[in-house]
């Protein structure tokens, strides 16, 4: 990835909002590239957070293992997303394991370099507070959903969240442009594989989902999914 391509990636990342073109160029040059093959883990949950990453291209699934050994899928991450940043900023071990669901390329900076960026570029320090706040708000929302919503609402909310973060318009609706297994959805919504399979099958029959496009989910009727997510 050449320097202009790196700068293009950084321009999509809220952490670097407010930097001048010259400053973005410097930050891009200070990065090193980290390719990741499908199925490979970027790092392991519990490891010391020694690098901060930005997704250049590809897709990651963020897995977390609970104390009793249960696996949870926290979220999917794509181009422009920050990976491991909150752990680096807080000086804590990585809380989850990012696994490539397709070949990826990331830009990386050491924790020391990241700390230097916070000192050199006040805009990054301000943006970092917003990044941490946004992640906390998202997790609070997911906890609220798990505690208060019926399972159909949780599944609908999760699909809509992925569509907002990564969806793209295609003929027939909004495509989630990566493979999401029904087991992953079950882990993300704190329910069972059977319940997710039954719910998705019903929505496909109703025409809310149009089945799969190259193994990808397509939301054919987003307004109906919103209605389900907002049902009391």
In short:
With 232 residues, the chain is an alpha+beta fold. Helix content is 46%, strand content 23%. Strand 3 (60-65) and strand 4 (71-77) form a beta hairpin.
Could you characterize what this model shows?
- By secondary structure, the protein is an alpha+beta fold.
- The chain folds into 2 domains: 3-145, Jelly Rolls; 150-230, Winged helix-like DNA-binding domain superfamily/Winged helix DNA-binding domain (Arc Repressor Mutant, subunit A, Orthogonal Bundle), CATH 1.10.10.10.
- Helix content is 46%, strand content 23%.
- It has helices at residues 3-10, 21-30, 85-90, 111-120, 122-148, 151-166, 182-188, 193-206, 222-230; strands at residues 32-36, 51-57, 60-65, 71-77, 82-83, 97-100, 104-110, 168-170, 173-175, 209-213, 216-219.
- The protein has a 4-stranded antiparallel β-sheet.
- The radius of gyration is 19 Å and the shape is globular.
- The model has no long low-confidence stretch (mean pLDDT 89).
